[in-house]
Amino acid sequence: MGILFEDGNFALFRDGFLQTVELSAISALLALLIGTLLAAFRVSPVPALRAFGTVWVNVFRNTPLTVLFFAVVFGLPRLDVHFDNFTFAVIALSAYTGSFVCEVLRSGINTVPMGQAEAARSLGMTFGQTLRLIILPQAARTVLSPMSSIFIALPRNSAIAGAFSVSDLYFTQMTLTDRGYAIFAIFFWVALAYLAVSATVALLFRYLETRLEVAR
Amino acid sequence: MSSDSSVLTALLSGNEPGRTPRVSKSSSVLYDTPGPRARARYRAFGVLSVLGIAGLLWYAYDSLASAGQFSAAMWEPFQYTAVQQRIVDGLLDTLTAFGVAALLSLVLGALLAAGRLSDHKPLRAVATAVVQFFRAMPLLIMIFALYHSLFGTSPFWALVTGLTLYNGSVQAEIIRSGVNAVPRGQSEAAYAIGLRKTQVMLTILVPQAVRSMLPAIIGQLVVTLKDTSLGFVITYTELLYAGKLIASNTSTADGYPYIPVVIVIGTIYIGMCLLLTALAKWIEARGRRGANRRTPAAA
Amino acid sequence: MRTRRTIAAALSVLALTAVAACGKDGSPNAAAGDNAPKLPTYQVKTDVKLDGSKTWAAAKSRGKLIIGAKADQPYLGFEDLSTNTRNGFDIEIAKMIAADLGFSYPSQVEFKTVVSANRENAISQGQIDYYVGTYTINPKRKESVSFAGPYFVAGQDLLVRKDNTDITGPDSLKGKNVCSVTGSTSVKQIQPYVGADKKVTQYDTYAQCVDKLLTNEIDAVTTDDAILMGYGAKNAGKTKVVGKPFSKEPYGVGLNKDDQVLRNAISDALKAHEDNGDWKKAYDATLGLSGATAPAIPALERY
Predict the structure, then answer these.
(1) Does B200 fall in a domain?
(2) What residue stretch is flagged as signal peptide (chain B) (predicted)?
(3) Number of CB pairs, chain A paired with chain B, less than 8 A apart
(4) Do residues B39 and B120 share a domain?
């Protein structure tokens, strides 16, 4: 178990951990943005946007993230989009996670009582105002629990970036394995790191839940 | 042409029924039935977004085409029987891993759910710890560790074990919440007529829970299916592995056919997942209809 | 397998609608002209008896020799997916050894793809009888497997775009984007040249690196020159090998650590085929196609 404190392994491990956290955090924010936008598209009065949202969600939800990484890392350069592998990973992760966020939000929107939207409309609010001021805040409350599963899954999924030249925790695990350390000793520390990340996300959502419950 | 529901919406929003355009039921609540000006605006929006999306698609197509991604050489490998056979073999390996992992994860999920619902505190604690641990662990990390420790000779079992541990833990949570969602009166009534806990579970709660759980369970099976693609990191010869080999062993004037491979392999995955999702939807619809028919007063 | 064929048909329709002719045979990597060097054929020995070699005895009773190889290295260990055949210099070395061990190709020889990270495992657990695939002999590996050879000496080199002039060797790599395969020794050896503030890009196949080289995201791909030559030849006109190897990588045939008898037999086989000209012929018909002339045959190390 002491491998962490030998031969400069700690620096490698720390860098991997920070990279995983950074990748997850940025992707989470972007996924939230993409998901909200897609959800708005999917309930909007413009058929073309609805169709776009539906196609996006069906494609990205049903493609394995690994395949998506291949598409992004080797596809985007052909579209003259050149980034480093970290940015590519953020794009793949948030496009993928965004489609799940969209579906959860949409089901949340459906749980908001019709009367709310009708009341908003009778006050003369537009679609955008209704969604932004009335529906989404209420929907957010009901979707907190499924949303927390999505954002606990995100750091888990981010490990795939390690296979595409991002120096995250998976990369750390590969490197240490290659250096010949006992696999269980490596797994112990890497597992601990992921548990810490997912516990933090879970706590964050629990805090949000209590906060929003008071507001109700 | 207006359906019942849109008439209703139109009435509720105080508009003339005859003018109701065809909009989907779930979305129509959010905005008024558009008047002439709004309709013009939506149309403008529609045209703009169609143009925008078409522009993006055209840009993507054009760039890929000019990068030679649609050249004959890029797609040539797929013409060969041996290559097609390799894709089919990869697909079969994917489905085998999926089938075994799906079955085992459901069994593990049921066991863990039983543990989490148990009256014995230690058992509950163990089951909870197992579920929380494996739910937080990246599958890739698990598969890699399993392959380099216990299953060095068999990437198949490393993959299946990893898939089972993770998906089993998630299935356990789905089953547990399904059982918990059955109205309390059901179990109270069952206990009142003298059934033991196991009997209450097996004869009263689980059968009712299954109906509400099935879509979620199948949804998780879709995840299981997608995650089999991680097998490529430990050289399990599944679909993505086959695709990668095809890409890396075909060099053309414009590089390696990663895009054609992603298109072909991605289409197959999407097709399979959509089939499973459709199954989930069908079961859900069937369950709802059944629920309405059999227990009209339950709501 | 009726279902298999049905799925194959369905798949062809699904994915290959754009392609008029489904199910071609043969290879797109069509052979060069008539005067291209031809592969040698190897006389299979008939009265082989290796007393004391467990590996050989097991292979004999199974009726088949299982050889580990690489699948994605052009002209070295390459699997032609359209014909389901393997070719390359390593494959030829494997075949000449097989012939001397009394196994005829292809009926009694089976190749199995084993990736770098898994070689020691596959050998020590007996999944393969021996391994031929750019396997550098080094002391660390000798702790878990045994080597016959070396049969070829490669050296780490760089593959760059054809029009690149500023990369002339490892010393000109400071701050450049360099790519190699995840966890390989090439990465460790090149990182100091690139500098601490620039990470070497790592994918799990060289083809991914070369593809990135072609889309200008990578400035150089680094690994053994023998491997790079193959990629260079496959992408001729777009890439070139710098040609100044800066390490020595003696390739050996990997086999079970305890099988001294088999190791001697493989060494004898290598010696015999090096002396009778097969080695040179095999080189010319494989790696030689990339334009490089055959290097000197290294002396065998028997231990």
Answers:
(1) yes
(2) none
(3) 160
(4) no
Q: What is the pLDDT of residues C131-170, one digit of tens each?
A: 999 999 988 888 889 999 799 999 999 999 988 888 888 8
Domain boundary among C226, C242, C258: C242
Same domain, C193 and C275: no
Length of chain A: 216
Rounded CA-CA distance A92/A60 in Å is 10
Which residues in chain B (92-151) have CB-CB distances under 8 A to chain A?
Answer: 133, 135-141, 144-145, 148-149
Q: Which helix (H) or strand (E) holds C153?
A: strand C145-154
Cα–Cα distance list, B167 to B94, B276, C68 (Å):
16, 16, 34
Check whether residue B38 and residue B182 sit in a common domain: no
The DSSP H or E segment spanning B191 is helix B184-192
Residue C103 lies in a domain: yes
Same structural domain for residues B57 and B199? no
CA distances from A176 to A1, A39, C239 (A): 13, 42, 33
**Does a structural domain hold residue C208?**
yes
Q: What is the pLDDT of residues C242-298, one digit of tens each?
A: 888 888 889 999 998 888 889 988 998 998 888 888 888 889 888 888 777 788 888
Q: In whole angstroms, how far apart are CA A24 and each of A61, A73, A201, B197?
A: 18, 18, 11, 43
Q: Is residue C40 part of a domain?
A: no
Report whether pLDDT(B299) > 50.
no
When pLDDT is averaged across residues A162-169 and rounded to a whole number, the result is 89
Do C66 and C81 belong to one domain? yes
Q: Which of C186, C208, C242 is the last residue before a domain boundary?
A: C242
Query: Which of B211, B217, B218, B213 lies closest to B274 in space, CA to CA?
Result: B218
Question: How confident is the prediction for chain C on average, in pLDDT?
Answer: 83
Considering the domain boundaries, does residue B263 fall inside one?
yes
Same domain, C227 and C286: no
Q: Which of A166, A127, A121, A134 is nearest to A41 (CA)?
A: A127
Does C43 lie at the interface with B, CB-CB under 8 angstroms?
no
- Best of B63, B80, B140 to disrupt the C interface (most C CBs within 10 Å) is B80
Which domains are seen in chain A, by residue range? 9-212 (1.10.3720.10)
Is residue C144 domain-shared with residue C102, that is, in the same domain? yes
In this structure, the answer to whether residues B150 and B212 fall within a common structural domain is yes
Q: Would you say the C-alpha torsion C21, C26, C29, C33 has a positive or negative sign?
A: negative
Number of domains present in the structure of chain B: 2
Q: Are A52 and A118 in contact (CB under 8 A)?
A: no
CA distance B143 to B155: 9
Q: Is residue B231 part of a domain?
A: yes
SS3 for A174? Answer: helix
What SS3 class is residue B140?
helix
Q: Which residues pair with C109 in a beta bridge?
A: C65
Contacts of B247 in chain C (CB under 8 A): 207
Report pLDDT digits (tens) over A22-55. Answer: 999 999 999 999 999 999 899 888 888 889 999 9
For residue B61, the SS3 value is helix
Within a domain: B5: no
Chain B neighbors (3+ CB pairs < 8 Å): A, C
Does residue B151 share a domain with residue B204?
yes
Is C206 part of any domain? yes
Asked if B159 contacts B234 with a C-beta cutoff of 8 angstroms, the reply is: yes
**Position A208: which residue type?**
L
Which strands make up the sheet holding C156-161, listed edge to edge?
A: C201-203, C178-181, C220-224, C156-161, C239-241
**Backbone φ and ψ of C51, nearest 5°:** -70, 130
CATH number at residue B257: 1.10.3720.10
